[in-house]
Backbone:
């Protein structure tokens, strides 16, 4: 099969590159730690080395990059598209990399910006490409609905008639990592048995009573800084085992997203999760706790659908 | 004047020692960085050096220590008193230091623990001594009411008939410091013009439009992880100057305490702040934003009233 296209999900700390064949199948994949932070000042060399590492790939293959590679901390700052833009038009808004050698088609996917009432604003970079993939995988009508893309910055999105109409980002994974590495909760959250909302050591956390207790506490709508101190107070008074603190805090943080979703007009629709299995399991536990339906979409399949659709657009005469 | 008593507010990172005369006046004061963390394994030597540094103080003087010195990370873990205990009885519950030389009266003040419905629990260490001081300074009847003791872990307390009947702790200062030092908001929060809710560089923050904008946003009751990402989204889209992020986040965090207070049964009473002037000014701005009355109590006067009352109890035959 002929390699035809390279799609790269290029985040802050990680990068996943996919070599797509002319028939839309995956020819090869590579994931590494050359994220935007690690590549500062050497993005071009890093991309050239990546392509050179694939004997199947001609250096002239078109490359499309999504994620923080287009942020100010990335290779080239690419302006956000505004909320009203139809998601299907994403391939028309790719921005050529100024720093590319002659004859190369290297382009960056713009992020998305949504403005709300009273000056509210929210942004994404990278997730728009996953949503573009969902649109292609599910079809425009069936893709209507509510999505959650969990992670460092968890995104809750509404797709409506092929447009992103709502976006709310929660600093869930980042705050979990900060609390776990620093500060007064850190030692308890590193105790044996601790879960990790940022993607490691999740085994059993979704079903852990402490995770669910955190979700239940979050459902009461407490001020988060108070609920977090509550975790410490429970540990120092012996009401909670130190080993349970990480799962409880994970439940508080992810549960706060669900409590927020429940405060919005109730809809008889499933919440679709696009994320790795361990994070999807945590969200599934929250959905059960709130009596909501949940559909898990395979994040890699979604991403591939996006690259395949972009490649097809590229290969059109 | 004869030195008669040593009171020490011994926190996690700082220590303030007060030498009280037999007439209740301050003979000398010393503040240093020998907090509980720095003194691990050498509390006794550190206290002996402190006393030896005061020519006015006999080594046999009674010493009372409040704060994290009585926590598991401190000199000696001292159990919490339970909520119902009258605050006036605090001097009867001081716990002798096991590691004291013969003939010494070294004691640690126990912290306070309040239990609520559904297993809720909250704790303080050090603030009970300040509240004991307020009780003595204001008198038992006049001391009834709502207090806020801002800082790393901000405490909201209700005193009623000489008892602590409510306690809510918010991880305000700690979260502010974490966000400022680490993570995606850190660079914006360190930009010139940034305020510091943990006590430094507060000049003008209380009146800054960005602080007040954060307070107003917090009043809408958003999920904090979402509001924090909102600060980032405003910076990356140019809606907020990077230099404004620290004041805005400070407003979000302190404002969340006030929004929580406003959700409780409304009371026509002032909120009393016991804290350093810069933090008191931030709370005064929140009180104005919410149309609440505020009284600032001088934290050093409160602390001295506590030591004076404890000294008087000690000097009784």
Residues:
């Amino acid at each position: 099969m002929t390699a035809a296209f390279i799609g790269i999900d290029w985040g802050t700390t990680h990068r996943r590159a996919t070599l797509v064949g002319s028939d839309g199948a995956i020819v090869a994949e590579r994931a590494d730690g050359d994220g935007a932070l690690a590549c500062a000042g050497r993005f071009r060399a890093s991309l050239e080395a990546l392509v050179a590492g694939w004997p199947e790939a001609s250096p002239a293959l078109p490359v499309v990059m999504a994620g923080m590679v287009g942020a100010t901390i990335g290779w080239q700052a690419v302006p956000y598209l505004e909320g009203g833009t139809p998601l299907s038009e994403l391939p028309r808004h790719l921005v050529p990399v100024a720093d590319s050698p002659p004859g190369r088609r290297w382009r960056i996917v713009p992020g998305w910006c949504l403005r709300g009432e009273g000056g509210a604003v929210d942004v994404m970079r990278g997730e728009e490409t996953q949503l573009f993939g969902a649109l292609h995988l599910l079809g425009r009508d069936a893709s209507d609905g509510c999505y959650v893309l969990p992670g460092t910055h968890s995104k809750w999105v509404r797709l409506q008639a092929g447009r992103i109409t709502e976006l709310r980002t929660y600093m869930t994974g980042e705050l979990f990592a900060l609390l776990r590495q620093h500060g007064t909760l850190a030692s308890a959250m590193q105790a044996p048995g601790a879960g990790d909302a940022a993607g490691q050591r999740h085994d059993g956390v979704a079903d852990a009573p402490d995770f669910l207790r955190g979700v239940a506490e979050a459902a009461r709508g407490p001020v988060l800084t108070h609920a977090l101190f509550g975790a410490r107070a429970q540990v120092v008074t012996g009401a909670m085992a130190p080993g349970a603190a990480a799962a409880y805090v994970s439940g508080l943080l992810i549960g706060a997203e669900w409590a927020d979703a429940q405060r919005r007009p109730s809809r008889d629709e499933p919440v679709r999760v696009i994320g790795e299995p361990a994070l999807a399991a945590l969200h599934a536990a929250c959905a059960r706790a709130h009596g909501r339906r949940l559909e898990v979409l395979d994040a890699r399949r979604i991403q591939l659908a996006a690259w395949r659709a972009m490649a097809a657009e590229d290969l059109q005469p």
